[in-house]
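Entry: Mitochondrial fission process protein 1
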Amino acid sequence: MSPTRDNVHREYDVFKDSLLRYLGYANEVGESFRFMVPVKVVWFSYFVSSGYVIADALDKGYKVWKKPFQKEEKRLEKTAIATIDTLIWQGLASVAIPGFTINRICWATNKLMTRTALPQPVKKWTVVVVGIGSIPFIVKPIDRAVDLLMDSTLRKLYNHK
């Protein structure tokens, strides 16, 4: 997202503005099922999320690459910046921060469930439901936080050139 995303109309972004966005949260679904499935299933969910992140970064880089530039060096620089910016943004907003957050939510829920007399299947499914159910509540705050972080750090470095 651009630093002025709230002040100007932003172009539709299929990776951030459509249901495709939820592929970036596949790892959170995997984390939610961590206590019920083999760990390889959880790691596969990270593979799906990482594929989404890479696809978005390549898309952003390609869109810049297609634009006309007077100098080839400028094309390479701007393409690299767009690609790396997207990799960092998506890596933080779609994989690292939500993955950690859901992991901790599920861990805490599981700890609470071990203190109850509920049947084991109910305990396990409660962890899954709480984990998946928390996803809609964490998406926008994390996206905004990552925008603010990047706007106040990295983007200041490469937007002044």
